[in-house]
Amino acid sequence: MTGRTIVLDTDLALGAPGSDVDDGFALALALADPTLDLRLVTTVAGNTDVTSATTLSLRLLEMVGRPDIPVVRGAAGPLLDPARVRPADPAVLEHFGRGTPAPGYAPAAIADLVLARPGEVTVVAIGPLTNVATALVLDPRVAGAVREIVVMGGYFLGQMGDAGTSGEFNIWSDPDAAHVVLHSGAPLRFVGLDVTYRVHLDEARCRELAARDTAFARLAGEAALAWVEALRTRHPGSAVRGLVHLHDPLAVAAVTHPELLTWHDAAVEVVRDGVGRGITVADLRRREDPPPANARIALEVDTDAFLALLLAAL
Q: Which of 34, 52, 223, 239 has most Cβ atoms within 10 angstroms of its Cβ?
């Protein structure tokens, strides 16, 4: 039986020196889960520049024996802020060169696949929403044809406590794109940072991964250990030291294992500029005359069940 068809829209950075690794874990889970059918990977600037994200995605797919899955390059920066376009990472270019993606442009590729298979395709967006928003604007029929859009993004119960990045990174990176997605009418589910912070690997588990006998597990474990060291340097004394948070793979798991999370309908808006850039405001519709819901948001997660699923896949 064919699994749930998905597109993974990602700012993958696994393999770049000193970069976060959870996006690579998400791609690995999407490939390993037999209930998922990954048909397309699209790349976007976020954790790294779009050139590096494309190269690293191609490299990872080749490593795990799936070079048949097309990788299509997408947005190099946010919709309305060309000053934030990031140049290619010279360290990635030096080590891996420039990968050769499939022809085309990510938003068009997303729209084409969704419209060719109405009601069947789920878009899993684990980076800034620039590509997804552009696809929805290119052809408004995408909103009604997509099965759902699952987003790793937002911070709904609480606050970031960081004036430099007031909102969760993916939304903060392109809040205008998030606004487009939230007002598109497409079926949306958001897995926010307040929930994903509850799932992580400690250093001992990273070492266990690095000692496994598959190429991906070794790469993931070694990159995770390097990320732990980078966090120690960047955030001395912080609670994030020694932990690899699994933000992106939780969004992938939510597609076919929604029971891992507790969901709530919400009316979500995003602050698009100023000191509150990227902050997501979720009205949980508990008053007598609530605003209409435009998304479902995750409130809780079964941490042990998710970790068991991910570690078995890796």
A: 52
